[in-house]
Automatic annotation (TrEMBL):
Domain Radical SAM core: 77-338
Stored Gene3D superfamilies: Aldolase class I (3.20.20.70)
NCBIfam families reported for this sequence: rSAM_more_4Fe4S (TIGR04085), rSAM_ocin_clost (TIGR04068)
Keywords in alphabetical order: 4Fe-4S, Iron, Iron-sulfur, Metal-binding, S-adenosyl-L-methionine
Protein name: Cys-rich peptide radical SAM maturase CcpM
UniProt xrefs under InterPro entries: 4Fe4S-binding_SPASM_dom, Aldolase_TIM, Cys-rich_pep_rSAM_mat_CcpM, MoaA_NifB_PqqE_Fe-S-bd_CS, rSAM, rSAM_sf, Sulphatase_maturase_rSAM
Amino acid sequence: MPVFHLFETVTGKYMFDANANTFLKLNERSYQALLNYRNSNFEQVEPEIQNLFDSGFLAEKQDFEMIHPMSDSLQHNLSRSVGSITLQITQNCNLRCSYCAYSGSYLHRVHTNKRMKKEVALKAIKFLIEHSVDSPIINIGFYGGEPLLEMDLIKACVAYAREQSEGKELTFNLTTNATLITDETLEFLSSNDFNLTISLDGDEVAHDRNRVFAVNNKGSFQTIMDNIENIKNKTPDYVNKVMFNAVIDPNSDFSCSTNFFSNYETVKDFAVMASDIASSYKKSESLINDSFIKMYNYEVFKLFLYKFDRLKKKDVSKLVMESFDQIQENVHNRLRISFYDVKKDHHSGPCVPGVQRLFVNADGALYPCERVSEASSVMRIGHIDTGFELNNIRNILNIGTITEKECKECWAFRYCTSCAMAADDISEFSAAKKLSICNKVRENTESLFKDYCVLRELGYDFDKEKV
């Protein structure tokens, strides 16, 4: 049975042939013929359909073994190619952000006073070094809670890592709410060339709506502004290592956040990465107001105008810049890959657990990343004392096997964004839970396809990407 998808844009009607991994612009008759062909369960072969057959489209999708291509080399890569580690050095925080994973709004995760012991942290770093023989560059990230509550531990980790990692390039990351950055802390971070990510959601109204101090429930915006000014004044050469992560509240005024990051004197020269409020493990669904969606889409439209030299970069919201990267990387670059005669395959989405990212919680347990729940037995991939649990890692990597039939029939198979976290039911993987997000994944994929085809029709050259 051929696997294809039909969609329309302002520039025409299109078919995406999943087997050929390509788009085809159709005239009205061919488009209607394909609709009829699909609705007749692939029995009504009109002349337009035969023409597509004769041109090499609509080939029967060959069966294949549902297994991730990295499965065969998994053990080797885990032994020698781990490149980074993120340490949860504390589960405590001096703020109480309403959408934090530990805020109580998510299943199985709350703030605690638990902190990572020094021996656990050093053992985790040794674990990284021992499993990174083939990685010339290794990265250590510090995560919380609020990691700056544990500055003595961070200093001990950096000293130990430098001592043990001879012959490798060593880099450090730290994500912080920036309320605890003293002059001494700033000197340490800058002198050790830390990549510093500061959580900042927008102007004072947007930021303080969700990010308040635990002791008095007051907003943290002004404290952060004071500390950013201090960074600029005391260590001006360090500014290019600092960026903001803005968690965008769908009930906030998107235009205010956009104007803030572009025009507010304290922050306008910094890079910004925007992220959504995490939905996995959340107890209730986050609703998005219509005005937010309209304003966001308007900024994306302006981004497209910038790509065609109709606007200047400064006129486009920093918060939507990455949306174009998704079209470039997740559509255009993947179209270059041929999938004929594939014997083993797996839908896109999963990373290679432990190799691409490795998260160590305060107790020394290993997980694929900091976004998964530490309460989940199926997402745990080992411990620094006992090593990797290869079977769990294989199950996470090959999560598509629990929905194999549906996945093989899906036109978005190679553009899927679903990983094992979507199926995590804490004690087992749930096929029903994984399938429940498939419509949303397909909707997002179709949206990217539409944007890509329109931009191509209007003459945009993705092979000469404008930065």
